[in-house]
Amino acid sequence: MDDYEDPLARMGMTLACALLAQIANVMLAALMASAAPGGYRVRAWTFLILVLWTMVGTVLLVIRTARAGPGRQAGRIRPGRVALWIVSPWVWPILVRMRPAG
Length: 102
Fold this sequence. Notes:
Elements (H helix, E strand, L loop, with lengths): L11 H23 L5 H29 L10 H9 L4 H6 L5
Helix pairs in contact: 1-2, 1-3
């Protein structure tokens, strides 16, 4: 049992940044949906689509980051890193198609 290593434990900072960014993205989705023209139903569907879009992006980017190796995930939670995680789920199709450096 001593040899067990939790794979999520080494991704602590990455997961923390992704969580903070996703909270901010839900708020951004709410702001964007509130500006959508139409009634309540249109705004609700807009919000749902935007939240699902960012959640899929966040999950795919966390998976991609996990595959990059532990060296790129180390560090502290910095505002710049959280800002990158806030922006990245909105443009995830571009980032997923990019080849990793190296």
